[in-house]
Amino acid sequence: MEDNRFDPLLITDVHRQQLHSHHQIRTHTPIVNFQTSVMNESVDLCSKKAEEISLQNQPNEAVSAKDSMNPIGNDVLDGATGIEGVLDDRNVKEEITWRNSISEAIGTEDVLEDEDENVIRRLSLTSPDLVICSGSPDIPSRTCEDSPKLLKQPSLELSFEYGITERSRVKDCNHTPINTNDNLGSSETSFELLSLASCEENDEDCEELMKTKRALEMMRREHESKSKECEEALKSLRELQNELMRKSMHVGSLAFAVEGQVKEKSKWFSSLRDMSRKLKIMKMDQIKLLIEAEAYKKHAADMNDMSCIIQSRFNEQVAQHEDLKIRFNEGAKERKELYNKIQDLKGNIRVFCRCRPLNSEEIAEGASVAFDFEAAKDGELRVKSNVAFKKNFKFDSVFSPEANQVNIFEDTSSFATSVLDGYNVCIFAYGQTGTGKTFTMEGTNENRGVNFRTLEELFRVIDERKSQIRYEISVSVLEVYNEQIRDLLVPSSQTGVAAKRLEIRQVGEGLHHVPGLVEAEVSNMDEVWEVLKIGSSSRVVGSTNANEHSSRSHCLHCVMVKGENLVSGECTRSKLWLVDLAGSERVAKTEVQGERLKETQNINRSLSALGDVISALATKSPHIPFRYFKFPWLFKDCKFKSFSGDSKTLMFVQISPNENDLSESLCSLNFASRVRGIELGPAKKQIESSEVLKYKQMAERYRHEMKNKDLQMKKMEDNIHGLDMKLKERELKNKILQDKVKELESQLLVERKLARQHVDTKIAEQQMKDDLVLTLSRQPLAAFKLLNSNEENNQPNIIQQEPPHAEVKLPPAVAARDLVNLDESMEKENNPYLTEPLKIPKRNGRASICMTSQRAPVRSVLPRRNSLIPLPTTTTITRFVTTLPSVENDECCMDEKSNGSGKKLMSALRQSLNKKNQFKSSLQPRRAGLNVAVRVSIGPRARRLVAAANGRRTKQQQQHNCCMEKERRWNIGGK
Ligand SMILES: Nc1ncnc2c1ncn2[C@@H]1O[C@H](COP(=O)(O)OP(=O)(O)OP(=O)(O)O)[C@@H](O)[C@H]1O
């Protein structure tokens, strides 16, 4: 018979049922393993016993499946129950999932096919990683009928307390399903096996059962120890579980991170995909561009070819252009030369004669015309007056009264071109008052004069040449009234106030300038007209008998032209003077008085000066009287320069047709003829190339700088001279002071010598007195001793010179000392063969052994101080005296101390002398340094140095003088 009591399927089934009742799943692999192993051992024992019993009790084969299997199920469940408190509840789905995952992880799951059921899941109890799980809906309920073989087995009760006891057979269990609730309700671990026989009946069996019980007891204990181990394992399991949880969490977080990365990567991949798409598009574009580039390359090659062709053609054109330009410049030059040759042929000074028509008054008076204008076309003017002698005048042009302003300007316009070509031009009108000068030059609004038309012509030509030459035009208007220059472009706000008066300044060789003159820049004729109107309105006009609006001044329009050739860079500067002279008049005829008379006189004088200049030029006089009057002086730069051959001049000689004015007209005509007769060389073009102009400006600037530097040098030289003078003065003073110092020093030396001699004399006197005292006190030996002493001191006649009546009283102390010495000397005298010579103290220096009482008169006699140290007080001398050795001390000591006092005296003298020398030596180098500083630098810093050094030196000198004076006073009387 096969034993199927421990059919794992059954255990699983029972277990499932228990778990169904609790609706929980409790698993713990190690515990289950342990429980299983323990259980297996118990079961093995039980099964062995049961087999034995069953062999003995064959009839009682029927065993309740419930009784036989429940203990095992309980044990398993108890193990599971133990786990129950540890593990968390899980819902069914989680359990299934978890179980499946665990099962998959273990890999020990067996699928058994039951006889009745199709397929069920079963877990092996012997598996080391067994996890008992139940409650799964896929595990069906099992009954005892499912294992009918088990019912035939005897039932044993396996208990830890009582061992395995054979209790009873299960009755009526053949068809009764196992009630698991009855057995699984208790958590107590017990194995109950129903026995088919009772213990009481079989004692042997009982004994064996007891043994079994003991064995079970052992097993229980073992079980307890194992349960403890189990608990520890449980703890470790928990830790492992926690670790697992943490790891799972970590894995989760990693999974999350991985998921994020995956997302990012997916994004990245998507962007990569986009990029690759774009790249593809770009590649396509690139291909297109490459194709286009190829096409462009081809085009570029074609273009290069074209550009080469164009460049060559352009070069050709440039060459042609250059050639044309050169030709044009040459042509222009040629034209200018030819033009100027024509002008030269015509003459640099041209004189046009214009006769005004008879005015209404003259017509009314029935005045007759004095000139014949029939040959005017040929420039001839014939005087037809019967009164005057007939004379023909030849001018460049003669304009009859019928000639209008246009006719006049036809021959004048060429001068405008000359101005723009760089020539100075002067156009002026000359004639008697009221002959139409102003009319010719200025004209009226309806009949514009030469001024306006010339400027108009200038701007016309400028406009023609604007592509080649750039011009700048400025205009000044001034008048010379009563020999005063006035600027007529000064603003009209100064009405009623005298216009600004100007002065002429020479700014260079033959160049004059009027500083402060207004130069109005004009760029078109409207501006020109405005300027001309302003000048005209500001001019001094007066009424005379000859002319209602007579000009009382010379009016000058100066048009300055600056030209720059844009092709060649040539620069030109030229001037156009348009001058309306005041009319000459005869005072007797016009009967002017007062201010008008003065004006007339000035006008006539200036015109006379002009006539003189022209006469001088005409006669080629070496002296041209340019500077007699301001008017011609001013004209020197322009008009008169024209007469010198540098410019071109056009003179309008205005005449009156009236026969009554014939004499004045003839004067004017004669003057004009003289002007025309002046022989002039060819006009010089005022060309200044840009470089020449630049160099001229540089030269002018350097000249100016040189002037400034010359001025500075002069100032510096003056300063240096002044400093030298001061330096010499100071050196002289220094010399005088040094001489004084030397004198004082020599005086000081003399005084010192005298003082020393005096002191020596006194000391010698005192010494003599002392020697005399000694001689008197030791009469027998005196001669011998003194001779010895005098031999040493080279003073053999001292005693002889000493007066014999000198009386010196010895103090008691001295007497005692001398008595002792006398005793000794007497002894030696009585015994002349004594080897030891007589000890007589040597006197070194000038020290004396005189007593204090004896020195006092000597001290009082001293008239002068024997030291420069200012200590001539009585107390000091007393101290000095008291420090002298007393008579009580031995002579040797006295001599040393007296020698010391003498040394003191000498050292004091030496010190004073050294101080003097130091003072002198300190003065000498400073003087040397001072000299160097003064000689090297001459600026303000040097002056400060000199002042500081002088101050120092003066102070030192004063101190020195003060010291000398003090010393002298001390030496003299100690005041
Ligand atoms: N050619 C002319 N045609 C018509 N009128 C003229 C002509 N010349 C001069 N006149 C007139 O003669 C008068 C005097 O002329 P204007 O003032 O120009 O003389 P002037 O020589 O300037 O005199 P002054 O020297 O006194 O200034 C004016 O009224 C002027 O209009």
Uncertain segments are 1-39, 57-90, 105-144, 146-196, 638-645, 781-898, 925-938
First-residue to last-residue Cα separation: 166 Å
Helix residue percentage:
55-70%
CATH architecture annotation of the largest domain = 3-Layer(aba) Sandwich
Give me the count of strands: 22
Total helices: the number is: 26
Overall geometry:
flat
**Helix/strand/pairing class, anyone?**
alpha+beta
In total, the number of domains comes to 3
GO biological process, one term: microtubule-based movement
Pfam families: Kinesin
Coiled coil: 206-250, 699-754
Organism: Mikania micrantha
Report on the structure:
- One of its GO terms (molecular function) is microtubule motor activity.
- This is Kinesin-like protein.
- One of its GO terms (cellular component) is microtubule.
- Belongs to the TRAFAC class myosin-kinesin ATPase superfamily. Kinesin family. KIN-14 subfamily.
- Pfam families: Kinesin.
- The N terminus is likely disordered.
- The chain has 3 domains: 194 residues, no CATH class; 313 residues, Kinesin motor domain (Kinesin); 217 residues, no CATH class.
- A hairpin with an 8-residue loop joins β7 and β8.
- Strands 5, 9, 10, 11, 12, 13, 16, 19, 20, 21 and 22 form an 11-stranded mixed β-sheet that branches.
- The longest helix is centred in the first third of the chain and has 144 residues.
- It has 975 residues and is of the alpha+beta class.
- Helix content is 58%, strand content 11%.
- It starts with 7 loop residues before the first helix and ends with a helix.
- The site of adenosine-5'-triphosphate has 18 residues, from α11 and β18.
